[in-house]
């Protein structure tokens, strides 16, 4: 808890006595001043410092000028009329100007003062001969007055002091100070008004940024800050904010898309799992209620549904691994890999035609995970053989251009409609919308394939026509000869 001042403690005690124990007073939170107010205040303060500095400089300079003139008058008086006054000691008429005072001190100690104006200067404050100094009037003077005085000593030992009252100069300096104060006040007022106007005008873009930010916070995600010249700070700020807002909107839209995909994924997975689970429960209840005595039939159905669930779970795990597992990237010979895929597919589908055509002039090498690329190609080949029909054949062609290796997997099977081809790589999508077909496909195979291809920096596309077949095209970045590891590196 912050320490309280004496006045606050006293107020708390008084208030507690009046309200029977309520000793703590609530204080409203302090409000920070807006930046434009601070700018105006700082501008006025800097101007005030400048005006004070200039006023002090003028005051000091003016004082030096006036004092130098007084000193010149004193020096001239010493050389002219002071001598006449000293010679005409008995005369009541002297050539001395009225604002001057002369004090003569004889060697015997006698003091003669002429025209002291009721406040004679205190000559005891003079410590050096021949140098003008500022002294005060004596203690028993009618009024306090400052004098400028100079003292000289003659050959006979007589000391002559000539002093001049500084009252006219002090009045002049006081008037000058008053004028400077009035001018400074007027200038500060005008400076404050002008700075308020210009600061408010200069900060208008920031208010526009503020209103844009509030609109975005209220849900208007398409709102953007007006573009100003990037040569200015506000222009740079608007550029950075617009760029940041664009990236945030893209990220938000991507997150919303991912969330929607995840919801759809969870819904589809739940639906896919619910179907075999419902079948399992149905056959179990059928046997339990005595509706059938054929145990083998019930167990066969339960085994089929459990296999279908197992296949779906395995495909879900495969999709998760494909999205989250780091690949072991090495140079992969796609010709050798394609021949291996064709051999595996022939073993799984004996009697089916699977051809490999290499149209490359050199070894088609890419950087990738050999096991994952084998999975990709085998998925496409098996997909063509299973869903293309019993008479469908698969043709694999390898070719490359300057930057990419292109793998084409084509079948001459049943094909699919253009509408189905647009969604074939989506999770749980099947051109056959039946959820319980005997093929047992989960609709995840091509989604896994697309994910793996994209992880290798490639793309996959499909062109299909009903009754003609489907053509899948994979494009992967090609490794140039300069990028291939040397034989010494392999050893």
Give an account of the 3D structure.
This protein has 491 residues and is α+β, with helices and mostly antiparallel strands. Among the domains are: 222-325, Helix Hairpins (Orthogonal Bundle); 327-485, 2-Layer Sandwich (Heat Shock Protein 90), CATH 3.30.565.10. It is 52% helix and 15% strand. The chain has 12 helices and 12 strands. It has helices at 6-19, 35-79, 81-87, 167-202, 204-217, 233-288, 295-324, 334-348, 370-387, 418-423, 445-455, 487-490; strands at 100-105, 111-114, 133-136, 146-153, 159-165, 330-333, 354-358, 365-368, 394-400, 404-411, 459-465, 469-477. Helix 2 (35-79) packs antiparallel against helix 4, helix 7 (295-324) packs parallel to helix 11 and helix 8 (334-348) packs across helix 9 (370-387). The longest helix is centred in the middle third of the chain and has 56 residues, at 233-288. Its EC number is 2.7.13.3.
Class from secondary-structure proportions: alpha+beta
CATH class of the domain at 327-485: Alpha Beta
Q: Give the H and E element order.
A: HHHEEEEEHHHHEHEEHEEHHEEH
CATH architecture of the domain at 327-485: 2-Layer Sandwich
Rounded mean pLDDT is 80
CA radius of gyration: 52 Å
Could you give the count of β-strands?
12
The geometry reads as rod-shaped
Which fold does the CATH topology of the domain at 327-485 refer to?
Answer: Heat Shock Protein 90
For the record, give the distance between the C-alpha atoms at the N and C termini, rounded to a whole number. 72 Å
The main sheet orders its strands as: 2-1-5-4-3
Q: How many H/I helical runs?
A: 12
């Amino acid at each position: 808890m912050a320490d309280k001042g004496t006045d606050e403690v006293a107020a708390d005690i008084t208030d507690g006595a009046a309200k029977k124990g309520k000793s703590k007073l609530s204080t409203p939170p302090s409000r920070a001043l807006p930046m434009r107010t601070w700018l105006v205040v700082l501008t006025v303060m800097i101007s005030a410092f400048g005006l004070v500095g200039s006023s002090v400089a003028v005051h000091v300079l003016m004082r030096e000028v006036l004092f130098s003139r007084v000193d010149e008058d004193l020096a001239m008086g010493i050389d002219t009329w002071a001598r006449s006054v000293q010679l005409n000691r008995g005369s009541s008429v002297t050539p001395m100007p009225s604002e001057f005072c002369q004090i003569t001190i004889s060697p015997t100690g006698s003091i003669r003062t002429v025209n002291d104006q009721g406040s004679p200067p205190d000559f005891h404050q003079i410590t050096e001969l021949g140098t003008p100094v500022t002294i005060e009037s004596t203690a028993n003077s009618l009024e306090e007055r400052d004098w400028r005085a100079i003292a000289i000593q003659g050959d006979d030992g007589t000391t002559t002091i000539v002093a001049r009252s500084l009252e006219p100069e002090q009045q002049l300096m006081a008037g000058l100070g008053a004028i400077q104060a009035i001018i400074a006040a007027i200038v500060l007022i005008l400076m404050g008004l002008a700075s308020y106007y210009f600061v408010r005008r200069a900060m208008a873009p920031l208010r526009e940024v503020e209103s844009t930010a509030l609109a975005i916070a209220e849900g208007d995600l398409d709102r953007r800050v007006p573009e100003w010249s990037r040569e200015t700070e506000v222009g740079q700020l608007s550029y950075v904010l617009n760029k940041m807002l664009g990236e945030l909107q893209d990220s938000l839209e991507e997150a919303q898309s991912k969330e929607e995909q995840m919801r759809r994924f969870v819904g589809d997975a739940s639906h896919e799992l619910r179907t075999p689970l419902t079948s399992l429960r149905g056959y179990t209840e059928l046997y339990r209620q005595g509706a059938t005595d054929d145990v083998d039939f019930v167990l066969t159905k339960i085994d089929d549904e459990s296999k279908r669930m197992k296949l779906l779970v395995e495909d879900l795990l495969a999709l998760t691994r494909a999205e989250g597992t780091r690949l072991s990237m090495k140079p992969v010979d796609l010709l050798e890999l394609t021949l291996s895929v064709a051999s595996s597919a022939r073993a799984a589908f004996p009697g089916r035609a699977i051809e490999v055509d290499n149209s490359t002039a050199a070894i088609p090498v890419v950087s990738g995970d050999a096991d994952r690329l084998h999975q990709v190609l085998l998925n496409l080949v098996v997909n063509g053989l299973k869903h293309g029909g019993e008479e469908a054949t698969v043709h694999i062609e390898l070719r490359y251009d300057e930057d990419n290796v292109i793998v084409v997997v084509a079948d001459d099977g049943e094909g699919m409609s253009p509408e189905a081809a647009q969604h074939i790589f989506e999770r749980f999508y099947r051109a056959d919308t039946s959820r319980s077909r005997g093929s047992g496909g989960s609709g995840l195979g091509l989604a896994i394939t697309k994910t793996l291809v994209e992880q290798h920096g490639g793309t996959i596309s499909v062109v299909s026509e009903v009754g003609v077949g489907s053509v899948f095209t994979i494009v992967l970045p090609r490794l140039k000869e300069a990028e291939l590891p040397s034989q010494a590196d392999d050893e």
